Amino acid sequence: MVTVESFTMDHTKVKAPFVRKCGVQIGENGDIVTKFDLRFMQPNKESIPTAAIHALEHLLAGYMREEIQGVIDLSPMGCRTGFYFIVWGEHDIEEVQKALISALHKVLLATEVPAANEIQCGNYRDLSLFGAKEYAKYVIQGFNA
Fold this sequence. Notes:
Layout: E1 18-26, E2 32-39, H1 50-67, E3 71-76, E4 82-88, H2 93-109, H3 129-144
Antiparallel strand pairs: 1-2, 2-4, 3-4
Helix pairs in contact: 1-2, 1-3, 2-3
């Protein structure tokens, strides 16, 4: 099997929350893509309930694009401990962490989850704005600790 970068990280040795640069890829035309691990919860100890992580995905999809140009994707991890963040160009951890904290503060001010309807979302009934806000607070506090 091909080596998957995220499987090479020792999940027992990290302390969440954190932002980790997973890698930089350079395409055949010189295009640069950078991938980050935005870890919210301690691996194998905590996880975010589905409705809360789904709402965070909807909210952060827009808020991270307001903070950083060239966002390709923000996707929840299957383990529900955080997100993968993929962006055009070379970006550093400090820039992404600052953008994430700012985006999480915007989550706290949100009054609704964007695209929470059957036309724009494949599981629109499984969203929790309350949960998204609770986990946003938790992560902000973790970065401030």
